[in-house]
Design brief:
Layout (H helix, E strand, L loop, with lengths): L1 E2 L3 H12 L4 E7 L9 E6 L3 H9 L16 E4 L1 H10 L11
Antiparallel strand pairs: 1-2, 2-3, 3-4
Protein name: YneQ
Organism: Fictibacillus barbaricus
């Protein structure tokens, strides 16, 4: 379940995804399968090949792409989320979830 996100943030992310850009959206999140995690980052791009290539740089497999609602994306959580966000220069996005 997602929460703590503003409509403008979601709209901006969707616009970036639709434009074929690699777009990041981090929000509070709860899933009982991952009880110690507080957030998820959705990394999306409408251009599936571009998203696959981006994911390969971080060891993400194309099978992990969620292709629903016209917004293909990877879900990043836990250590992998923190590692990738740091490498992407987006560590600030995670500070509110510490």
């Amino acid at each position: 379940m997602a929460f703590g996100i503003k409509r403008a943030e979601l709209t901006a992310w969707k616009s970036e995804v639709n434009s074929g850009n690699i777009a990041f959206l981090t929000h509070f999140w709860y899933d009982p399968r991952f009880p110690h995690e507080k957030s998820v980052t959705k990394v999306g791009c409408r251009d599936i090949q571009r998203l696959i290539q981006w994911g390969k740089r971080y060891g993400l497999r194309k099978e992990w792409i969620h292709e629903r609602d016209a917004y293909p994306h990877f879900d990043l959580i836990g250590d992998k989320q923190r590692e990738i966000m740091k490498l992407e220069g987006r560590s600030e996005d995670l500070k509110k979830f510490l």
